[in-house]
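tool=predict chain=A
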Amino acid sequence: MQLSEQEVIKRSAENLKKTLPGMKILESVFQYRTGSYIADLVLKIQIDDVIKNLVCEVKTSGEPRYIFQAVSQVRLYSSLIENSYPVVAVPHIGETSKEICKSFDVGYIDFDGNAYLKFDHVLIEKEGKKSLTRAKRQTKDLFAPLSSRILRILLVDPEMPRTLSQLSKIAKISIGYTHKIAKTLEEKGYAIRDQNYRLKLSRPRPLLDEWASKYDFTIANTLDNFYTFERDSSLLIEKIREVANQNNLEYALTLHAGAFLIAPYVRYTDVHAYIKPKEVNMWKDCLNLRPVESGGTVMLVEPYDEGVFWGIQKINGIKVVSNIQLYVDLFNYPARGREQAEFLREKKIRFE
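tool=predict ok
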């Protein structure tokens, strides 16, 4: 049974005393009014020689989407109260919600004994018992091939809010599935809705990190390995461009060959290019490629999903996947992929 906000407020004050026995509560005020705003709870506390006003915003749920609301509110209230520190109080707080609070310099406390306060020379961080919750398939669903189309669209332009119908149309997936992924993004604290109910990323960097960590380029895709008689990789890439234009073929460079055109860091010898699966033989014939079991320098990549072609960029007439797809492909690639991925993010993606 979900507790009411008043019950959570009362229990939060009591639980703070139990969780932090060395802290003295000098004064407590419920529904503290400051200007036209009302803070749920303000506690004047003392820890050793430090006295502080803890401005607490209470939520009945610790899901990331509610934590975002609480953080925004409590930071505002705290800015209006002298010598104060903002704190979010919830029944149960998860790891993602903890990260959200810390990233905004906001403390937290819950009924499981989790607590975090950081101000002046005070730093308190306590890990409580883990809440037993039913395992969900949300994370798996979030990075499935169709879902990744939505992630890619949002990550390529994280400042652009989009309606679900727009996302559905661009990603070529049903509105129902789009709604499911949007809800998961909100619940995990990766996205919020604006005043017009459009979806917008709130934490693009952690979302990109989680996607990249769960994705393996060589496992997800089908790689057709070839030998080429062309010794100069740049000339081969130019020939790829010409063949594509002459035969109306789709392609996009990725991994080190693609990154070299966007943010060069690692020298490359192998050329990886996404192509449409049914066009492998045409590419092979037009480029005069020879199939090999291993040791080839040209990999025609049949993608795990056609979404990899969304957001393609042209560099001197050469097509390269989006920076987001490029980063994800590189991240777990063994041949210095992580180094090139981080350099790409530093120079081009630049998420906070």
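Confidence is low (pLDDT under 50) at residues 132-138. The domain at 138-213 is CATH 1.10.10.10 (Arc Repressor Mutant, subunit A).
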